[in-house]
Amino acid sequence: METDEMIATLAADLTPVQPVVPWRRAMFWLLLAVTLITGAVAWYGFRPDIHERMLMPSEQIQWIASVLAGVLAALAAARLAEPGRSEAWALLPLPAVVVWLAGLGWGCLADIARLGAAALTLGTSWHCMGFIVGLGVPLLAVLLYLLKDGASLRPGPVAALAGLAAAALSSAGLSLFHHLDAVLMILVWHGAAVALVAGIGAVSGRFALAR
């Protein structure tokens, strides 16, 4: 049998393999994340001042930016899990993260102007840390599982973005039912929790996803 005939014969018996579409899995994950966070908000109930706070432009910008940071980070992780995609996709959530942090920073300055030195008092809020990490880490694990087929190409960046996505959305959900008196506390406790989950993703991803 000629080589060409042999190749044709072997190829005829092959079953087509459906290509993995990571962004579809990311969209499924986003739906799951929104469902879980909505359930948490329904369980705890909206914070008493939610209507007043959400009428403030600064609060709207911060909250929308945190949601966008989570959504764009998930999509960026999915894109990086696709072979041949540019590493520049890792920068997709950066503008939203910058706006989010800038909004919190501006809120800190506004608190200082309104309250003086009292605005710099930093209390503890382990509930914030516990909720964001407690929900963020399982969501991180689910997203890494969904993207594992392609994530081994760039395990560190994909896992870090997955952690950012999970933590940012958890932070956005927490803001709907948990109240902190000072924006500085939000910046410190939410920021630390988000950084922790993203860091867990970056470190664990190198071992969990590498082949």
UniProtKB/TrEMBL annotation:
Pfam families: NrsF. Coiled coil: none annotated. The keyword Nucleotidyltransferase does not apply. The chain crosses the membrane at residues 26-46, 61-81, 88-112, 124-146, 158-177, 183-209. Keywords: Membrane, Transmembrane, Transmembrane helix. The keyword Membrane applies. This is DUF1109 domain-containing protein. It comes from Humitalea rosea. The lineage of its organism: Bacteria, Pseudomonadati, Pseudomonadota, Alphaproteobacteria, Acetobacterales.
